[in-house]
C-alpha cells in the first residue's frame, strides 16, 4: 500500500516561505487519513451485516420449509438401523401352469424394542404377552430391563396385532415395514413350494430367502431383480392339485394309512401336473423339523421325492419290457411258475397258486413273482442293471427341488442271481414314487426316456430311446389287462381306460433288519387313457389296512387301486379328457363307460 506522507516536503517548504506553520499540514493529513480508514471500516461492517442477515434469512426459510413438509406428511415411528448393508427384499412370484399365484409377497410390519427408551417396561411386557400368547412375560421383562439397547419382538405382525401394540403407547416399542412371503393356498402344494424365511434383517426391510422345495432350488432366480419381476411358472395345475389332495386325503383315512403320496405326470413332457404328500403343512407357518425319530413322521417329509421305498410288483413291467425288447420272449411265451422257486436257502413264492405255467402276459396280469424271476434269469444281472440304470433307478431324480439330490435310490452293493430275481419284482431295491412315475412314462410314451420337471414345458422331451414303439405298445396292452382281468380290477370302471400295475412290499424295519409282517407299502402305477396314453399316476400308501372284511387287507389291489381310480375319475375331466368308448372284442357291442 502506498501511503501519502504526513509532512510532504514540497508543501512544508512552501508553507515556511509564506510564514505559515508546517504542523497544520501534518494535522490535516492525519485527519484525512483517519476519515479514509473510517469509511473503509464502515463499508466492511455493512457488508458483514448484510451477509449475516442473508444467512439468517436462508436458515429460517429452510427451517420453515422443513416444518411445512413435516406438517403435511403422515406421522411415522422413529427407526433404528441395525445394519448399514442394503437389503433386497423383493422376491418374484411363483405361479402355476395357468398363471394362478402360488407364492407372492405381502407388505407387513415387524416389531422391535429399544429398552432404553421405554417408560414402563414391565407393563409393556405384560400387555405384549396378552397380544402374543407365544411370548413369555417373564422373558420379556428380563429383556426390557436388561442392558440390551435393541431386540426383535415379532418378525411379522397382522394389522390387528399392530394396532393392539400401538395402543399400548410405549415409546420404546417400534415398528418396521417389510415384505413377507405369502402362500394364499395354504397347505396346497406345500411340499412343492417348500417355504421361505427371513435372512438378513433390518428395521426397514428383511431379506426373504427360500428354505425348501422350489423356493430354495430357485432362490437365486426369485431374488434376481434383472428379471423385472417375471414370475416363476411351474408345471403344477392348482385345480388338479386340489382334487388330488382331497381324494388322496380321504383315501388315506379310509385305508387307515400312516401317510400317502401321489404323482401325476405328463408322459411326453415330463411335467409334474400334481404332487401330493400327506401329511402336509402350511408353508405360511412352517413347522420345525424333527430332531429324532423317523424322518417320515414329520409333515415336512416329501414322500413323493424323499420317500425311498421298495415298490414291489410295479417293477415287474420293467422285467417284461426288457425281455420283450431283447427278443427273449413274446407276450405268449410260456414260463414255468411251479413253486416255490428255490435259490440256495431262499424261496420265492407267489401270492396264489397260478398253476405250472403262465404266458408272459399272464405273469404280469396275475403278478407272478416266480414267472418274473425266471424272465430276469434269462436277462441276466448285468443287463438288468443296465436297463434299470437307463430308467434312472440308480440316481436321484433331476427334478428341480432342493431335496431331490439327497433322495438316492437304495441298491445292493453286489448283484448275485438272488438279487436279479428279487429286484425283478421290486424287492431289494428301493426308489421314490417320482422315479416310478418317470419310468412308467418311458414305458408307455413310445419308449423314450422321460426326466421329471416342475417347470412348465412347451413341447415333448424326445429323450433317448429305451424300448421300441412296438414293445411300448405291448406294455400298454398288458397294463390295460391288469385292470380288466387282473389285480387292479377296482380301476376297471373309471370310464377313462386306465391301465396299470399293482405293487405291495413288506415294510423294512428301521433297526435290526428284517421286515414287518403286518406293515406294507402299497403302490398302484397307473396310466390313462390307454387308448392314447397321456398321463401316469402313481399312488403310494404307507401302512394301509382295509378293514371292512373279517381280516385286514393290505395289498395294493384293495388299498391303492380304489384310491387311484377315484383320483382318475375326479382329475380326468379337469384335464380335458372325455370318457373312453371301447368296442367289445367278443360281441362287437359298443360299451360306453360313463
Please tell me about this protein's structure:
This protein is an alpha+beta fold. The protein has two domains: 94-233, Penicillin-binding protein 2a (Domain 2) (Alpha-Beta Complex); 240-592, Beta-lactamase. The protein has helices spanning 9-17, 23-72, 121-131, 137-144, 159-166, 190-193, 213-217, 219-223, 238-254, 316-325, 360-366, 369-379, 381-390, 417-424, 433-444, 469-485, 560-574, and strands at residues 94-95, 101-113, 151-157, 173-182, 195-201, 206-212, 232-233, 259-266, 272-278, 334-336, 341-343, 346-348, 357-359, 499-508, 515-528, 535-542, 581-583, 590-592. Mean pLDDT is 88; it is low at 80-85 and 585-594.
SSE order and pairing:
Blueprint: H1 9-17, H2 23-72, E1 94-95, E2 101-113, H3 121-131, H4 137-144, E3 151-157, H5 159-166, E4 173-182, H6 190-193, E5 195-201, E6 206-212, H7 213-217, H8 219-223, E7 232-233, H9 238-254, E8 259-266, E9 272-278, H10 316-325, E10 334-336, E11 341-343, E12 346-348, E13 357-359, H11 360-366, H12 369-379, H13 381-390, H14 417-424, H15 433-444, H16 469-485, E14 499-508, E15 515-528, E16 535-542, H17 560-574, E17 581-583, E18 590-592
Parallel strand pairs: 1-7
Antiparallel strand pairs: 1-2, 2-3, 2-4, 5-6, 8-9, 8-16, 10-13, 11-12, 14-15, 15-16, 17-18
